[in-house]
Amino acid sequence: MLRKFLSLLLLMPALAIPASMSAQATPVRQAVPNFELYGGYSYVFSEYGTPPGGITTHGMNGWDASFKVPIFGSFLGVKGDVSGNYNNDNTPNFSPRSYFFLFGPQASIHLGKSTLFAHGMVGSAHVSSNAIPSLRSSNTLAVAVGAGLDAGFSRNWAWRVTGDYYNTHYHQVSGINHNVDEVLNSRGRISTGPVFRF
Fold first, then answer.
1. Among 96, 111, 133, 174, whose CB has the most other CB atoms within 10 angstroms?
2. Residue partners of 114: CB distance under 8 A and separation at least 6
3. Whether the predicted pLDDT of 118 surpasses 70
4. Does the pLDDT at position 168 exceed 60?
């Protein structure tokens, strides 16, 4: 009995060596990459007019693209975001095109192949092409705060759904006293499309 036990003890290291070699041969699964390139469809909710009356809410279809660079590993990065939106309701003398150029931090949490994130960005917004008769073209400060989900279907590819609170303050000068009115101010954006991670 003792002889069998000792032979078993001597045999165990010999069995463990091939097992460890096969474990080393198996590639270690890498985490989701932290660089992100995104492009997709966006819909912006906008308002035109001044309170208490005269407020008109409408939506604008468009596109959105962004690029994120990691700063502190997978948790924190810096993102640049560019988007364009276009009014298509065929209203005479009201065919605005708006463009946003934004930059700011993004915090992310990886959940397997998927990623939850939140961002806050500031930058510039530009509106052009007959927005209203007294405002042909204008630039203003823009702020976007939002969050989203990248639903991963592979290590490098995911599908993004995100929502943002947009804040812009375009103005027009009107009347003899040159009253300043806020016009075409965005209140929100939803966006969706593919994300390439590398």
1. 96
2. 149, 150, 151, 152, 158
3. yes
4. yes
